[in-house]
Amino acid sequence: MLYNKTDMAGNASTLGWWFAVNLKKLVGFVVVIFVLFWIISKPTSASGSVNNLMGNLRDAGNSVVTFISHTV
User: Fold this and answer.
1) Splitting the chain (72 residues) into consecutive groups of 10 residues, what average pLDDT does each group show?
2) How far apart, in whole angstroms, are the C-alpha atoms of residue 66 and residue 63?
3) Which among 9, 31, 37, 68 counts the fewest CB atoms within 10 Å?
4) Residues 41-59 as b or e (16 or more Cβ within 10 Å = b)
5) How far apart are CA 43 and CA 3, in angstroms?
6) Are 13 and 2 in contact (CB under 8 A)?
């Protein structure tokens, strides 16, 4: 009975779960392919974006450390 969307208790069928898992894998695969294409086609832009991201993460970490050191 793979064609049923729900069983008697209202639980999702195996087919629906399988589709959701494969959709997540497909979306993840497409994102990875897009990022690789972006890195290969525009390496300067990609490296600038990664540098900006790392700088923002560093600033956020410093802000958390400052908050905790002032709280204690």
Assistant:
1) 51 64 86 93 92 96 96 86
2) 5
3) 9
4) eeeeeeeeeeeeeeeeeee
5) 47
6) yes
